[in-house]
């Protein structure tokens, strides 16, 4: 359970808590995200809670993170966020192949 970015990004980090996505509650869903990367992680966590893990969900998160990585201004404006996006994009590019389609 590691916080990578914001309130929603990281393995086992959801709704600003160390807990599995599968245990999200209605109250947890009300926890606001901090920025576009965090909102992408929130959508991913909620999708996992509602539909289970999937190639589609991981691919969507990977694409959202890659949008941040592709803009070099993000590296200058907020290096920590940029490298969190790199880590998330790379992790999703690998783990999504272990999911059902």
Question: How would you characterize this protein structure?
Answer:
It is a single chain. This protein is mainly alpha-helical and 101 residues long. It has one domain (13-98). The protein has helices at residues 26-29, 36-51, 55-70, 73-77, 79-95, and strands at residues 13-14, 17-18. Strands 1-2 form a two-stranded antiparallel sheet. The model has no long low-confidence stretch (mean pLDDT 94).
Task: Output the keywords.
mainly alpha; 101 residues; single chain; 57% helix; two-stranded antiparallel sheet
Structural class based on helices, strands and sheet pairing = mainly alpha
Order of helices and strands: EEHHHHH
**What's the end-to-end separation, in Å?**
26 Å
Mass-distribution shape = globular
Rg from alpha-carbon coordinates:
13 Å
Mean pLDDT: 94
Biggest pleated sheet: 2 strands, antiparallel
Number of DSSP E strands: 2
Strand order of the largest sheet: 1-2
Q: Which segments are poorly predicted (pLDDT under 50) over 5 or more consecutive residues? A: none
Approximate helicity band? 55-70%
How many domains make up the coordinates? 1
Tally of alpha and pi helices: 5
* Strand-residue proportion: under 5%
């Amino acid at each position: 359970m590691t916080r990578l970015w914001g309130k929603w990004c990281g393995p086992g980090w959801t709704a600003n808590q160390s807990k599995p996505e599968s245990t999200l509650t209605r109250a947890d869903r009300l926890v606001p995200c901090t920025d576009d990367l965090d909102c992408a992680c929130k959508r991913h966590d909620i999708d996992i809670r509602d539909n289970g893990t999937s190639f589609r969900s991981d691919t969507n998160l990977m694409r959202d993170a890659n949008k941040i990585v592709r803009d070099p201004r993000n590296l200058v404006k907020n290096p920590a966020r940029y490298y969190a996006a790199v880590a998330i994009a790379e992790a999703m590019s690998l783990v999504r192949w272990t999911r059902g389609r």
